[in-house]
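pinging the channel bc i need a second pair of eyes. not urgent but kinda urgent?? the chain im working w is below, pasted from the shared doc
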Amino acid sequence: MLKSAIEHPGQPNRALMALGILQGYLKKPLGFFIITLLTMPKFKQQISPDFPTEFVRANVLQAWMYIRLKDRLGQEKAYEVVRAFVVPIGLALQQGNFRTVEARRSYENLVNFQQQTHREGVTRWNKMEFLEQTPQKYEIRVTDCMYFKFYQSLGIPEMTRLMCAVDNAIFNSYLPEKITFHRNGIGNRIADGASACMFVIEHHSK
């Protein structure tokens, strides 16, 4: 019997997933993880109160882990270690948002749950424009990204690209035989310096 339901989607344990993945890369992952948790309250004091509490809660741990890893491993290696757990954790969270276990996978359900996530999830603080919604194509444009603002305020704007990587992972794995996701070309993200982020979901029905 499923624990989750369409009204109550699955919520994977992010902390345990992160720790499990860190074990493959750090010599003392548990010690690093515990110290990160113990020092995180002081780090949170540096975060502007303008950011929504729920949004900060969802993103502060990975931000602080990345900053701490940069001091030890350098930016390039730290970024790859953080990517190793951020993308699979983000994919697991999005699979919960899109009810991949509880509801049939279809283009219509993907669009409906994506819109519900934007209304109720942490992305609701993004500003976006809905450009097109047809049986073949769903396109939106994000003109103001809370992730970019948050990570930029902490001096780590490159972390935003990992959130973009999660988009690629979930949309292109949801129903790969029938649905593809792209951004109408390279560089069409705020994280790349563009004025907006493009989201294009195409349904390749027979």
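so The chain has one domain: 14-203. and Residues 75-97 form the longest helix (23 residues). — does that match what u expected or am i reading it wrong
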